[in-house]
Amino acid sequence: xxxxxxxxxxxxxxxxxxxxxxxxxxxxxxxxxxxxxxxxxxxxxxxxxxxxxxxxxxxxxxxxxxxxxxxxxxxxxxxxxxxxxxxxxxxxxxxxxxxxxxxxxxxxxxxxxxxxxxxxxxxxxxxxxxxxxxxxxxxxxxxxxxxxxxxxxxxxxxxxxxxxxxxxxxxxxxxxxxxxxxxxxxxxxxxxxxxxxxxxxxxxxxxxxxxxxxxxxxxxxxxxxxxxxxxxxxxxxxxxxxxxxxxxxxxxxxxxxxxxxxxxxxxxxxxxxxxxxxxxxxxxxxxxxxxxxxxxxxxxxxxxxxxxxxxxxxxxxxxxxxxxxxxxxxxxxxxxxxxxxxxxxxxxxxxxxxxxxxxxxxxxxxxxxxxxxxxxxxxxxxxxxxxxxxxxxxxxxxxxxxxxxxxxxxxxxxxxxxxxxxxxxxxxxxxxxxxxxxxxxxxxxxxxxxxxxxxxxxxxxxxxxxxxxxxxxxxxxxxxxxxxxxxxxxxxxxxxxxxxxxxxxxxxxxxxxxxxxxxxxxxxxxxxxxxxxxxxxxxxxxxxxxxxxxxxxxxxxxxxxxxxxxxxxxxxxxxxxxxxxxxxxxxxxxxxxxxxxxxxxxxxxxxxxxxxxxxxxxxxxxxxxxxxxxxxxxxxxxxxxxxxxxxxxxxxxxxxxxxxxxxxxxxxxxxxxxxxxxxxxxxxxxxxxxxxxxxxxx
Length: 698
What we know:
Blueprint: H1 10-37, H2 48-61, H3 64-68, H4 80-85, E1 115-121, E2 127-139, E3 142-155, E4 158-162, E5 187-191, E6 208-213, E7 219-226, E8 237-238, E9 243-246, E10 252-255, E11 266-267, E12 270-271, E13 276-280, E14 290-299, E15 308-311, E16 319-324, H5 327-332, E17 341-343, E18 351-360, H6 377-383, E19 394-398, E20 403-407, E21 413-420, E22 439-445, E23 465-468, H7 471-474, E24 484-485, E25 489-490, E26 494-496, H8 498-510, E27 516-520, E28 528-532, E29 536-537, E30 543-545, H9 548-551, E31 563-572, E32 575-579, H10 580-585, E33 590-594, E34 599-604, E35 607-612, E36 619-622, E37 628-631, E38 637-641, E39 644-650, H11 651-657, E40 662-665, E41 668-671, E42 675-684, E43 695-697
Parallel strand pairs: 23-28, 31-42
Antiparallel strand pairs: 1-2, 2-3, 3-4, 5-6, 6-13, 7-12, 7-14, 8-11, 9-10, 10-16, 11-17, 14-18, 15-16, 15-17, 19-20, 20-21, 21-22, 23-26, 24-25, 27-28, 29-30, 31-32, 32-39, 33-34, 34-35, 36-37, 37-43, 38-39, 40-41, 41-42
């Protein structure tokens, strides 16, 4: 109801309100007050980028009157009352096909949750197209991406929103290029047949997939990855070493020898219509070999030839000229799929599609499983306490560790390790000549870990594993590297020898640390994966926990706190002899004596030393496959201390066999980075024919 007596003059306002109360009651009073307080003066955004979060906040708060003030309705048929009431902006009836996130409720300009993506000039006077994007994590490494757009007009005071165009003939609101419809895009993927069948549990590092573009528009790869495995590391669009500059003709000149990074980003995952590109897709095959390959790509629609720049084959060795695509250049067939290309930054908004391809990886049928134990993942998982028929898990066999690893989707893990069997027993009905195995399988508790972590065990030089380690948590086990900055940022990976990896994993389990696979690219030169057990990094791979500054201390490198081992020692012709059980048990090794063979075994994981006591032909001990050390006659050293009998062994030779570094600092005997011998008494004794060092057989 309109009350003509309502004005902003104090007396007229009071009279008008009283008359409205008499005629229409309190509801009419409230409506009148709303009309009085409503401010219809126009509002402007500083920029399209700044507009998107403000619009999203107003939509979520359902503040329709304020949002209406940001609209430019000049030349349109939209009634501002429709904006103020929200009827123009919100749907009340759910359509038959609707996104479960509730985007259907918002008719204009976009749904809350979308973020600013790009802005493009439409060519019309002051009109720009604003592109917004949303990413939805669907789990299992699958990211659903969606695009939307709306138009704004630029004024002297700022930007205002334009209502959607119903009359496509309106020359003042010419829409820019919109995302290409999905039915006009055809991308297929297939596995390149491997040279030989693959084995469950073993990394297929050379596996490749062929991505074909059978549609009419170019596509640029964003990610190619296996579902639930690990994220893509293709770095498909990036700046590279060198310099780029625009020429007057609209080309881009690339100087590959310049000592800097290019201003332009290069795409090496661009696939033109009719092309195919082979992509490395390593994976550890599982079970029946069926896996889902996710291919994410951007579609470059519209008049794309002028916006895609390809290298000119006729340029020199130092400088390469990138020119826009022409029909003649395509027909010449000079382009190689996967070669670098440049996409102009003012290109049309590109839609992002993710397609899933169900691919069958060929699995070897090896009844002997000669490469994995020999044991199949089925038998190994059962011995580890899992049920391959009813439980889901990932299986990995790492030959340098002689171990199976099993990781569930919740990141709980267990390992099955081949260990020496020092007392093999004959089966009750063993045939004559039957020899029992000298090894056994043992279950080891593992820390929680990402599902593909075991793939990165022992991949470095000499079977080492690259990890980011917290010095305060692992410094007693190994010298931990920390980040440093010279010309570039060095993340400070520690190379963990295979013999120490079990200790690192055991410590992580003890401290409830999750072994994670983190992607690092601190210098923008291409990402890579590295493992971490307690170090937290930012998205680029720079440490933020622990604080690097807090790790700096004035002590000499390597002077870590060491655990003291108090022992009675003796020397034989200058060779330091130590009690085997006291010394090596204190360092976490198992020490086992077998009376039947008069042998002592010292072992931890795959590192093993065996002593033969009182052997007429000498003493021999092993340290890993292919290494044998032999001493001449050494009857075994015994020292009676009350009721205790101690067997003495040469410290230097034993540590050398176990790959433990030993350092003598003026009588301070340091073993590795964690232990120091506190020798209580030292005496010289023994026969003169005992040598100081062993001889080595290869």
